[in-house]
Amino acid sequence: MIAFFLDNFSPFLFEIRPGVGIRWYGLAYVMAFLCGYSLYKWLAKKGYSQMPPENVGDFITWAAVLGVMLGGRLGYALFYNLRETIAAPWTFFELWRGGMASHGGILGLVVFTFFYARKHRLSWPGVGDNLVVVAPIGLFFGRCANFINGELYGWPSTAPWAVQFPKELFESPELAERAQAACPGLTVEGIVDGAHADPRIQEALRAILTPRHPSQLYEALLEGVVLFSALWILRVHTRQPRGVLTGAFFILYAVLRIIGERFRVPDAPLTGPFTRGQFLSLFLIAIGIAFIVYGYRTRQYERAQS
């Protein structure tokens, strides 16, 4: 029999005291910010952006706060958690409970960059073209954090790289009952928490949990590595008018997201044959086409491409 990997990571990079410490999710945001800032500043120095290099730090900071975090939270509340948000609006501010939507973060960045570009008299598509090049880095770290947290896992699989996720117990009463029988005296929450460090719980869960596709890692590769590589090549090695890279991001992200979602258990009711993520991605394709059409009609280029 194949010994499948058990996702027994702690959500904390380190704990100061039980339940308080630095989470992997927090580290993912910090790494995304630092890498995005460094690459955007490099592009600005090389003439791929109208934005002065000294302004990149403030821009990336506000983009992260108002675009990614606020937009991602709004997207989650509207697209995935609307009923609870309406019934208990204060839950929107309970950030420690988790809940971010990448589609909301993307649309949040669209709105933020529009107003930022107007305020600073910059080309909106020009600002977006460089931001979308560095954005997949954040998507990569975010998906890795999803994997460490054992959430948004995939369909059952017998592939050698399949992974068992303790949080499956929250979704399956039958498996939860078996786990409690194997770990007497513990609640389901106690079993999931104990899986991080207790070898006896880990051994019991290996005989109970379903091996599944590590869809978080698939999406990290698709939305992170593949998307970044494609956009970086377009930015640095080809000559594209303003807006084309932004359009390419929307289209490529949507296609790669649709592919990745085929391996992932839906986290919301289906819309026809589509998962919620696939359905929302269809609108991104239309937005991407609009940006590309605009770019080739206006034919405006950055200084490094003139």
Question: Could you explain how this protein is built, in words?
Answer:
This protein has 306 residues and is mainly α. The protein has 2 domains: 7-162 and 215-305, no CATH class; 164-210, no CATH class. The chain contains 11 helices and 4 strands, in the order E-E-E-H-H-H-H-H-E-H-H-H-H-H-H. It has helices at residues 24-45, 56-79, 82-87, 102-119, 124-149, 173-182, 188-194, 199-206, 215-237, 244-261, 276-298; strands spanning 5-6, 12-17, 20-23, 163-164. It has a two-stranded parallel ribbon with strand order 1-4. It has a two-stranded antiparallel ribbon with strand order 2-3. It is elongated, with a radius of gyration of 21 Å.
Q: What form results from the Cα inertia axes?
A: elongated
Structural class: mainly alpha
- What quaternary form is this? single chain
Q: How many domains make up the 3D coordinates?
A: 2
Biggest pleated sheet: 2 strands, parallel
Query: What's the end-to-end separation, in Å?
Result: 60 Å
- For the secondary structure, the number of strands is 4
* Adjacency order of strands in the biggest sheet: 1-4
Low-confidence stretches: none
Overall residue-averaged pLDDT value: 92
Rg of Cα set: 21 Å
Could you spell the SSE succession in H and E letters?
EEEHHHHHEHHHHHH
Helicity, in percent? 55-70%
In terms of DSSP E residues, the strand content is: under 5%
Total of DSSP H or I helical runs spanning 4+ residues = 11
